[in-house]
Amino acid sequence: MPFHPFGSQHFITLGIGFAIIAGLILFAKRSERNQGIVTALLAFLCLASYPFALFAWRGYPVSLDNVLPLHLCDLAAIVAGFALLTKKPILLTLTYFWGIAATTQALLTPAISHGPPSLPFIHFFVQHFAIVAAALYIPIVLKWRPKAPWWRSPLEVFGISILYHVFSLAVNTLLETNFAFSSRPPDNPSLIDHLGAWPLYLFAMQGLALLLYLLLALPFRRRA
């Protein structure tokens, strides 16, 4: 069954996914034992997403874009998994900003053509919901906070994001891939369609990313 963005299957999937996220967060906040269970579960889902992707795409026409874990959300899943296990500040910071600013956008405009009950569909949404769950879980349950002053962490993540996009462009040039959608927009409708033609949309993407990072830091701004 093909996947149709903005159709009933899409909205039902979003509703189920965000309801599960809310349930996990509420469950984790009830006790330290519950917190340990949810932390382990989310870390497992994030770190297992790449092996699951290799399994899910067996039997389907694949390209290097589906095989190499170099999309931003692939890296975000790995970062989120280790962030939950190690509590390293930079990993927690990247998970929060990447998970909400980028992965939420991927859920709203999915770059996938296979619908339910196919394994690629299941993998895509499990991976992306796990990242978003981790991004919300970190400040709500683990009480992570960005660095002071409030704009410091957004700028650090923005700098790392720029390096990632430069890397993705180099890889795309060498392998004829489209990681980070930095070589062309995705086939499915997305926000990139409204940011201009290539390469202008690359600069618009970075400007939008910085704006989102700053907005996501505002709730943690310390009042003088």
TrEMBL record:
Matches recorded under InterPro entries: CHP02206_TP0381
Presence of keyword Membrane: yes
Keyword annotations of the record: Membrane, Transmembrane, Transmembrane helix
Transmembrane segments: 6-28, 40-60, 66-85, 90-109, 121-142, 154-175, 195-218
Protein name, per record: TIGR02206 family membrane protein
